[in-house]
Write a structure and sequence with these properties.
Blueprint lengths: L2 H21 L18 H30 L1 H5 L2 H30 L6 H16 L11 E6 L5 E3 L14 E6 L7 H18 L1 H12 L7 H9 L1 H14 L1 H11 L3 H4 L11 H15 L3 H13 L7 H22 L11 H4 L7 H13 L9 H14 L4 H39 L1
Parallel strand pairs: 1-3
Antiparallel strand pairs: 2-3
């Protein structure tokens, strides 16, 4: 066998081996074990499986096309280096499919864990509720959650490019495992949902245009407006979280960013997040703008006692002071912003903030203590807003909160699973009736 023939034979063997491994990339429904209540929503499941099956079809066509080329006259006469180059492209595409499989496997595999799987399904329900806006301003993509290490959450937004190509069919939210068990989980989760909502409403570009105009001033406030524009993507997500779950968002944020002083005041030009000290002050200012109440000033004062500004060097203290001086104007601009996607409404108007005023939440908690079952019929983000307010008021203990949150996540997961089963059963009965007629 000459060198060209040997190269062709060897690469064809490797390509056929790729096909055998590709055949082992099976739909998740064939090998993932989970109780029905832990499963992602049918819409999310279908979107993931369609995406992966499309990848498999394209990959199989690519390998088969390579094998046909090897067997064709141009392939048989090609030098070994050209055969190897074409095969390398095919193999890289195969590795891309495996990376997509790993991304979705993080979401699906944990659904088999006892209790955790059901809670993740409950978090899917919370995330879906956090993404809803009355008024039909956008089509909500399916959302799925999974747990991971580390203090922070993250999102891979739906309709964004996957590694190696292809459009992500679902929003995937990574939730810190250490946040499970209390209302603080809602702070991280809804913040990430806020990133998805901002993308659907095109909020960041529209706000950046306004903020860029404010930087034309030559006053000492210019540097502050430059920073507000730089951080706007993370600030919009924090706004969404406060608007949905109230003081539970700010308290949860404090739990995440309560770090040694050097980290709390660290300002990095490349970091899209404001320094934690500014971020907590801003969260309180947003809460005060949406839900006026003395609790926000009290929480802000406590935070600033934890981390007093006087320990900073003079240049850094001047910058942080300038940010504080422009904070109220910035928050007013944010909550009253009217992007084109909202058809004339402002951000605060579409978030139904009147339902989440502290006095309303406190009264609701007093009623729920007498009738706990009412919590099950309320929207999940509203429940977290009530629980967070009760924690802030001191009328709910951490132990009681953990038990309630665990029970509710299980209830929401079970209810969604039973609703799906009921819809499927009714659809089947309707088809049978039509067939009989």
């Amino acid at each position: 066998m000459n060198l060209r023939a040997r190269a062709s034979w060897l690469l064809s063997q490797e390509a056929r081996a790729l096909l055998t491994r590709l055949n082992r990339v099976r739909p998740f429904v064939l090998y993932e074990t989970m109780v029905p209540a832990a499963a992602p929503s049918p819409i999310a499941n279908t979107a993931i499986e369609k995406f992966m099956s499309g990848n498999r079809r394209r990959m199989r066509a690519l390998v088969e096309a390579f094998l046909r080329w090897l067997a064709s006259p141009p392939g048989r006469s090609a030098p070994p280096w050209e055969m190897q180059r074409k095969f390398t492209v095919v193999r890289l595409q195969f590795n891309t499919i495996l990376s997509h499989l790993d991304i979705f496997a993080d979401v699906i595999t944990q659904r088999s864990e006892n209790e955790t799987g059901v809670w993740l399904s409950g978090l899917d329900t919370v995330a879906a509720d956090a993404l809803k806006l009355r008024g039909g301003y956008y089509d909500e993509p399916p959302v799925v959650c999974y747990l991971d290490r580390g203090p922070g959450a993250a999102i891979r937004r739906a309709r964004t490019r996957m590694p190696g190509g292809g459009e992500n069919p679902v929003a995937i939210i990574r939730v810190p495992r250490e946040r499970m068990g209390g209302s603080g989980i809602a702070s991280s989760l809804v913040h990430e949902v806020g990133h998805q909502a901002a993308a659907l409403l095109d909020l960041v570009p529209s706000l950046r245009a306004v903020l860029h105009g404010l930087q034309k001033t030559r006053s000492r406030e210019r540097d502050a407006w430059v920073l507000w524009e730089r951080w706007i993507s993370e600030i919009v997500a924090d706004f969404w979280s406060v608007a949905r779950v109230g003081i539970a968002s700010t308290a949860g944020l404090m739990g995440v960013v309560s770090l040694p002083r050097v980290f709390v005041f660290r300002l990095s030009i490349d970091d899209p997040h404001p320094p934690p000290w500014i971020r907590v002050n801003l969260s309180c200012a947003i809460g005060e703008a949406l839900y006026p109440h003395p609790q926000w000033a009290a929480l802000r004062s406590l935070w600033n006692q934890y981390y007093p500004l006087e320990f900073l060097e003079e240049p850094q203290r001047r910058l942080f002071t300038a940010l504080l001086e422009t904070m109220d104007a910035f928050v007013s601009l944010l909550v009253n912003h009217r992007p084109r996607a909202l058809r004339g409404a402002s951000l605060s108007e579409v978030m139904s903030t009147h339902e989440r005023r502290p006095a309303v939440l406190t009264a609701i908690w007093a009623r729920w203590r007498r009738a706990p079952s009412e919590m099950r019929s309320a929207p999940p983000t509203f429940v977290f807003a009530v629980l967070g307010q009760a924690r802030a008021d001191g009328t709910l203990t951490p132990e009681e909160e953990s038990r309630i949150v665990g029970d509710l996540l299980t209830w929401w997961a079970m209810s969604d699973a039973l609703d799906v089963s009921a819809i499927c059963a009714e659809s089947r009965q309707s088809r049978l009736r039509v067939a009989r007629r």
